[in-house]
Amino acid sequence: MDAWSGLAFGFGNALTITNLGWALLGCFLGTAIGVLPGIGPALTIALLLPITFQVSATGAFILFCGVFYGAMYGGSTTSILLNTPGESGSIITALEGAKMARNGRAGPALVTAAVGSFIAGTIGTLGLSFLGPIVVELALKLGPAEYFSLMVLCFVTVSAVLGGSALRGLASLGLGLLIGLVGIDLQTGQPRLTFGIPELLDGIDVVLVAVALFAVGETLYLAWRHMEGKQEVREVGRLMMTKEDWKRSTGPWFRGALLGFPFGVMPAGGTEMPTMLSYYAERKLSKHPEEFGTTGAIEGVAGPEAANNAAAAGVLVPMLTLGLPTSATAAIMLSAFQSYGIQPGPLLFTSQGELVWTLIASLYIANIMLVVLNLPLVGLWARILKIPTPQLYAGILVFATIGTYGISNSVVDLMLLYGIGIIAMFMRRFEFPQAPVVIGMILGPMAEQAMRQALTISQGDWTTFVTRPVSLSILLLALLGLVGPRLWALAARRS
Amino acid sequence: MLRRTLLSTALAAATLPLLGGGARAQQQQQLYSSLHVFIPAGPGGGWDGLGRAIEQVARQAGLVGNFQFENVGGAGGTVGLPRFISQRRGREGSILVGGAVMVGSVLANKSPFGLKDVTPIARMTTEPGIIVVPAGSDIKDLQGFLDALKSNPGGTSVAGGSAGGIDHIVLGLLLKSQGRSAKEASYVAFAGGGPAQAAILGAQVKAGISGVSEFAEQIKAGRMRALATTGETRSLPDVPTLKESGIDITLGNWRGVFGPPGIKPETREGLVKFVTTLHGLPAWKEMMERQGWEDAFLPGEAFEAYLKRDEAATAEVLREIGLI
């Protein structure tokens, strides 16, 4: 089946009342769990796995894909409104999104996230339908050495979030790297910084740290510093995007989508790296750099949110074309294939063409459903900000606590949430930026593992990073990103 | 716990009316009105899958009235194990699903509790390991791979799961069989099957070791070449086992059922009877076929003896690798 006839067949199959019902249920569930920090799409699909004993394969996978895409939409909502990211791909969205909401621009931030998710989700799904097999063959050429170089490139983006003092910013980054070290080392099996606590052996969840830093820290800081003073009720502001907003969002949407999709396809890529790169690119390209980190820039929401959704679609490419589970969600979906007696692998498209194309068609449908479902909700969501500050922040605290406990039912996680929250409170007091902590925590362990894998393969030869052409090019790009802007500024000052 | 129960109940309530009743199989005499299943891993993994399969078959056959699941994941089962031991000690109607991975993680994490602290009921399934090379590799067969290991272990990079896991142990045993030390292995650990498979498909490493089902489809599609499997008998018709190639290594990722510590002999007997009846059902055979599991049923005392041997062999290799 070629792509066109496959899609035609898929749409014919997906557009039945039952299958549309599964898609709607999935989108609804996905949005709901995306909103809750901690409970992600992987856990939700895992909890839904027993239905594979009763429901047809088509119905089950449409439901799962709805949950998967829905979670990506829902994750941005709480990032923007409450500074509480629901999943790791939305952490970067919180940087500008929460600032926009605080300055009465919650509506436009939510709309640009929803429309951007729709555009990027559609581009990603188009990529999955037409380019999948080609892109994945290219992605296989990347080894640990190239991944390490990519992560070095992503580290450059830290410079965009360092804030006023480089020393404070780098100290934050160091804290993130330190937290990232906790747990069993993958390459040697030795526990690091676990202090004999078994719950720490698997490491600390990045969403937990983001919620602790952004939401809990902020709440504690407000409770500490603003005991008295006037009650301010925040302005909700206008809900729709202005003409200017549309103009400023379009570029980031497309750039974010084009950045996100290939990262999603890479077996060791994921959704976090492209959101960071997109944020960095938009900050450098924006005509309003003064809004970044202060009043909140719409580009900083549009770009990363698009990158996140395009990457989510990209993750499905290695899963469907090669049977490779490259994320927790994909791994659980693959185990669902197995409960139908379908062995996912390179032959899936040929042996299960009907199922795969129905699934892809339902992704387009889910995307449309989600934007239709989410746009009218913007007004409702934005109203949350009308709640007076003390009640709102008390609510956020409850919400963050419940969500965190949901990850693992573990008291240790709750103690971590509040422990890191207290550190974040002091960080706010002494003006240490929080974003570098999260970036260090995400990139640090990935970079370390990739580096050690590359060095094991090369038998300890460090030149492997510069003798492989792709790796070298990425490293040069990182160098350019680091010194380029400075040289540019120097040259501009001279002339 | 409440949160997850609420969520799953809500999900079940949302989906159940749409499902309708499954076909009723022949009814058996009910052995438990309610059975508590403790999974020391998150939902969606292999142990969770075995637990849910037991639920599915036992409930339809009428062996058990209803099931409660408790998932406590983390650190290869060593986070959940102490909780099961302390909360369920001496109590009836409760089982734990675990397996080979736990033997290694208990040793490597120096966990104060191990599988010796729970009551072995039965080994249910196993998945042998498989050794593969990229399709374009110049290593053609097992002998070629062994020669490479013998002459240049450092240059023969092998991809697999986390360090100290079953894949790593297989490589360690192979090195030992060639008169080398497990410490010399050039083992590249990957988190999760996807990135490891990608590294083999992209020929970033010389070879790979994992469970048979992980690689079976890639082999069928001609993207990987299988050298040997680690089971007692062949898992794939054209791929020899290590044993028939003259290397005395049999190892599998087995999964099984345990009871709480300190239960009465008749409670244990009851659980053994339950899994034996379950294993005898045609529906169980169907389930295993559908899931692609190999039958490795071994109940009671025999399972206990097997566990002791498995633990000793694992400890020896881990010690040599330098993990314990």
Automatic annotation (TrEMBL), chain A:
Coiled coil: none annotated. It comes from the Bacteria. Keywords: Membrane, Transmembrane, Transmembrane helix. Residues 20-439 form the DUF112 domain. The chain crosses the membrane at residues 45-71, 109-135, 147-163, 170-186, 206-224, 315-337, 357-382, 394-427, 470-489. InterPro entries: DUF112_TM (IPR002823). This is Tripartite tricarboxylate transporter TctA. The lineage of its organism: Bacteria, Pseudomonadati, Pseudomonadota, Alphaproteobacteria, Acetobacterales.
Automatic annotation (TrEMBL), chain B:
Keywords: Signal. Residues 1-25 form the signal peptide. It comes from the Bacteria. InterPro entries: BUG (IPR005064), Bug_dom1 (IPR042100). CDD domains: PBP2_Bug_TTT. Pfam families: TctC (PF03401). PANTHER family: TRICARBOXYLATE-BINDING PROTEIN, UPF0065 PROTEIN YFLP. Belongs to the UPF0065 (bug) family. This is C4-dicarboxylate ABC transporter substrate-binding protein.
